[in-house]
TrEMBL record:
It is found in: Cytoplasm. GO terms for biological process: asparaginyl-tRNA aminoacylation. Residues 140-458 form the Aminoacyl-transfer RNA synthetases class-II family profile domain. HAMAP family: Asn_tRNA_synth (MF_00534). Keywords: Aminoacyl-tRNA synthetase, ATP-binding, Cytoplasm, Ligase, Nucleotide-binding, Protein biosynthesis. Its EC number is 6.1.1.22. This is Asparagine--tRNA ligase. GO terms for cellular component: cytoplasm. It catalyses: tRNA(Asn) + L-asparagine + ATP = L-asparaginyl-tRNA(Asn) + AMP + diphosphate + H(+). It holds the Pfam family tRNA-synt_2.
Length: 468
């Protein structure tokens, strides 16, 4: 009995004039009373396969059912195609419709081939249907390829994948942008003697939240396994109504014992370059589609990143450049204030015209765990800035000295009693170490050329959005 073959395999096949079975969703059907052309996609590739049906062999009734969005099984002969742009096609002997799709109500009726019809904005309102479009098929396949490439890179370089908790009692970034996790009732929660909500009666016996970063637990693992990484969902309840922020996003966080800031930059640069190279090598069809459809510079930009070194400079040097820039900024630049995305993009897109790594930021604008520089004013932080994106990576060498770390925590009002386990890494066999976090969706934005982060994750979470 004949087994199905994927569209990807059929299109690459050189073994012609044989009987095949294919299954997928109809993108379009056109033709006349003699011949019908049905293009079918099964998700295995951006390309559709053309099914040719002798209209006289099929009843009008059965052809009518084959509408955009319907699912079909086609048995027929794989033959060389006369049509341009395709090497093979299938001459249908039998077409079975598994599930009809009413053209009057199918939300993607106008978007059979992605050439026209619905904007990305409109598609966001029907996010549950987006994977059926060419654009989201391409984005999701690239997203998959990048996850795979991340694991492959680390595995090949001797890193261990550690699973850090999603529910945690600590705030890794000390920024307070957390989603509370609780089993206590909203109405009449138990109160303690002081009249406050009594978290001792909560599931974990204390307030907990969804993790904002796996770094602190990653550091514990690095102090034992040497080279580790986490790759998981992270959650931030910041007002993330921008094209670069999500409330739920995925972060890749390597952490390496005995690495300093220089090693950390070298790792970040090599890592990013090899991921982009992987995309160019393994996602060529999807990238070509996105390049042609949305952004004619996409492929050039990706190649540029693989072929050129990043520019490295300190925050202080960057501030000097920004102060003498001819461009007018909305936010003033002053040593000590955080850079806005307009400043980051000026450096990357206008001044250096290449990816930039900024280091040694003022300690006041960075997290408590970063290693203090000798000047006592700056820390060994690094942000990697990318064209069109701004910050794609944030990382640092960590403060390994217990006394200095504890002082920073007091200065920044980070409760030591919540992080006693973290401080144990500095009490017992402390060592220099460094790591960073790559925002996975920001990487996907860069690689796909999409401009809104809500278009590179299947189910975006942002304020007032949890429909699914
Ligand atoms: O710079 P961030 O906040 O650094 C950390 O969380 C560190 N603990 C990482 C580490 O050193 N292990 O976040 C890291 C990256 C950012 O550079 C950005 O790419 C991404 O995570 N990111 C977000 N992506 C989407 N939506 C958001 N709301 C994001 N916030 C940060
Ligand atoms: Mg950051």
């Amino acid at each position: 009995d004949l087994r199905k073959t994927s569209v990807q395999e059929l299109l690459r096949s050189t073994d012609l004039d044989r009987e095949v079975l294919l299954k997928g969703w109809v993108r379009t059907r056109r033709g006349n009373k003699y011949v019908q052309f049905i293009s079918v996609n099964d998700g295995s590739t951006i390309h559709n396969i053309q099914v040719v049906a002798d209209a006289e062999k099929f009843s009008d009734e059965s052809l009518k059912e084959i509408t955009t969005g319907s699912s079909v099984a086609v048995r027929g002969k794989l033959v060389a195609s006369q049509g341009k742009g395709q090497a093979v096609e299938v001459q249908a002997a039998e077409i079975e419709v598994y599930g009809a799709s009413d053209p009057e109500t199918y939300p993607l009726q106008k978007r059979g081939s992605d050439q026209k019809g619905i904007s990305l904005e409109e598609l966001r309102k029907i996010a549950h249907m987006r994977p059926r479009t060419n654009t989201f098929g391409a984005v999701l396949r690239i997203r998959h390829a990048m996850s795979f490439a991340i694991h492959q890179y680390f595995n090949a370089n001797g890193y261990f994948y550690v699973h850090t908790p999603i529910i945690t009692g600590s705030d890794a970034e000390g920024a307070g942008q957390m989603f509370r996790v609780t089993t206590l009732p909203d109405v009449n929660p138990p109160l303690n003697d002081a009249g406050h909500v009594d978290y001792k009666q909560d599931f974990f016996g204390k307030p907990t939240n969804l993790t904002v970063s796996g770094q602190l637990e990653g550091e514990l693992a690095a102090m034992a396994l040497g080279k580790v990484y986490t790759f998981g969902p992270t959650f931030r309840a910041e007002n993330s109504n921008t094209a670069r922020h999500l409330a739920e996003f995925w972060m890749v966080e390597p952490e390496v014992a005995f690495n300093d800031l220089q090693d950390n930059m070298d790792l970040a640069e090599d890592f990013l370059r090899s991921l982009v190279r992987y995309a160019l090598e393994h996602c060529a069809d999807d990238l070509q589609f996105l390049n042609d459809q949305y952004d004619k510079e996409l492929l050039n930009r990706l190649k540029f990143v693989t072929d050129n070194e990043f520019q490295r400079l300190t925050y202080t040097e960057a501030v000097e450049i920004l102060k003498t820039a001819r461009q007018k900024f909305e936010f003033p630049v002053d040593w000590g204030t955080d850079l806005q995305s307009e400043h980051e993009r000026y450096l990357v897109e206008k001044h250096f015209k290449k990816p930039v790594i900024l280091t040694n930021y003022p300690k006041e604008i960075k997290a408590f765990y970063m290693k203090l520089d000798d000047d006592g004013r700056t820390v060994r932080a690094m942000d990697v800035l990318f064209p069109g994106i701004g910050e794609i990576i944030g990382g640092s060498q960590r403060e390994e000295d217990l006394q200095k770390l504890s002082t920073r925590m007091q200065e920044m009002h980070v409760p030591e009693e919540d992080l006693w386990w973290y401080l144990d890494t500095r009490r017992f066999g402390t060592a220099p170490h460094a790591g960073f976090g790559l925002g996975f969706e920001r990487l996907i934005l860069f690689v796909t050329g999409m401009t809104n982060i809500r278009d590179v994750i299947p189910f975006p979470r942002f304020p007032k959005s949890a429909e699914f």
